[in-house]
């Protein structure tokens, strides 16, 4: 697994991504490109358009040119790597692909995006059938959209666009916000254990539908406790903490504490406090010192569905 795949998938549908246009989707719908999870497949499952695929598949091209799909990133940011997955496409995958990116603010239409200035971030590369292809990206530009080009046609199951979130926080000027939200640029930078699920789930948008959409550790058999460290969207003052154990019925932590960090200085935001299973908890924070990071300690182990830290940027 490439190192960049530990970063959020900026294009993921559950993070707000959208396939806004495609040159063709005759055999399989373009929206499948950014679905969460691994692609599925059931052999000899035929519909009106042929074998059913969990991916995007275009017709057999009989004229010059190539097919493409235009994706709006759910979370704009700096792209560190791209994964093009041709899972289950064995005799109908594209032999080559490339990826372009653009930065277009506001809410552009497909026509406006087509006229934008595009930068090639993954050069035309050879693909194999039923395989994941990892491409590192060396570009510090903040992008809002990507375009997957397949040469000349065929099927791609998933497109993953991993990177660092760079939101426009100016819309929150004078307002409060969730300083720990992935969508606002926060990131889990360290974690004691991620055996069952990824720690960045805990700061993802929306509510967790089941245990796997939160963060859950292995059962701790030794001394100590599990924890994660959140780099906030920016230096700020936290006023309200939400600690959600929804869906964690028999594996919720017994207690939680929150410690703010600002350089070498530590600030106790929430002392060790009892939690209940399958419950959203809300705690007012009375310390007024600004912090840049927050360590969430759970005792002794278990999982959290979500953690929200509401406050103001300094």
TrEMBL record:
The keyword Hydrolase applies. Residues 16-165, 185-313 form the Allantoicase domain. It comes from the Bacteria. InterPro entries: Allantoicase, Allantoicase_dom, Galactose-bd-like_sf. Its EC number is 3.5.3.4. Transmembrane segments: none annotated. Pfam families: Allantoicase. It catalyses: allantoate + H2O = (S)-ureidoglycolate + urea. SUPFAM superfamilies: Galactose-binding domain-like (SSF49785). The keyword Nucleotidyltransferase does not apply. Pathway: Nitrogen metabolism; (S)-allantoin degradation; (S)-ureidoglycolate from allantoate (aminidohydrolase route): step 1/1. GO terms for molecular function: allantoicase activity. Keywords: Hydrolase, Purine metabolism. Belongs to the allantoicase family. This is Probable allantoicase. It comes from Nonomuraea marmarensis. The lineage of its organism: Bacteria, Bacillati, Actinomycetota, Actinomycetes, Streptosporangiales. The gene is alc.
């Amino acid at each position: 697994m490439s190192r960049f795949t530990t970063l959020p998938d900026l294009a993921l549908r559950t993070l707000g991504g959208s396939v806004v246009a495609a040159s063709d989707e005759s055999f399989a719908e373009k929206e499948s490109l950014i679905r969460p999870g691994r692609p599925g497949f059931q052999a000899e499952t035929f519909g009106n358009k042929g074998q059913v695929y969990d991916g995007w598949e275009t017709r057999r091209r009989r004229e010059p040119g190539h097919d493409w799909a235009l994706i709006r990133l759910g979370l704009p940011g700096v792209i560190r790597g791209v994964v093009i997955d041709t899972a289950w496409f064995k005799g109908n995958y594209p032999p080559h692909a490339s990826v372009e990116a653009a930065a277009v603010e506001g809410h552009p239409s497909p026509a406006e995006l087509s006229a934008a200035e595009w930068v090639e971030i993954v050069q035309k590369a050879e693909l194999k059938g039923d395989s994941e292809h990892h491409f590192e990206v060396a570009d510090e530009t903040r992008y809002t959209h990507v375009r997957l080009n397949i040469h000349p046609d065929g099927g791609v199951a998933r497109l993953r666009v991993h990177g660092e979130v760079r939101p426009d926080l100016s819309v929150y000027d004078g307002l409060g916000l969730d300083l720990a939200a992935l969508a606002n640029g926060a990131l889990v930078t360290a974690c004691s254990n991620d055996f069952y699920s990824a720690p960045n789930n805990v700061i993802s948008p929306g509510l967790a539908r089941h245990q796997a959409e939160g963060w859950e550790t292995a059962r701790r058999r030794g001394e100590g406790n599990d924890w994660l460290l959140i780099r906030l969207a920016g230096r700020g003052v936290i006023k309200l903490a939400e600690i959600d154990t929804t869906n964690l019925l028999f594996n919720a932590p017994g207690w939680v504490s929150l410690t703010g960090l600002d350089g070498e200085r530590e600030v106790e935001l929430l002392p060790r406090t009892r939690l209940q299973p399958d419950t959203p908890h809300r705690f007012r924070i009375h310390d007024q010192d600004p912090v840049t990071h927050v360590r969430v300690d759970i005792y002794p182990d278990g999982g959290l569905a979500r953690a929200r830290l509401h406050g103001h940027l300094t």
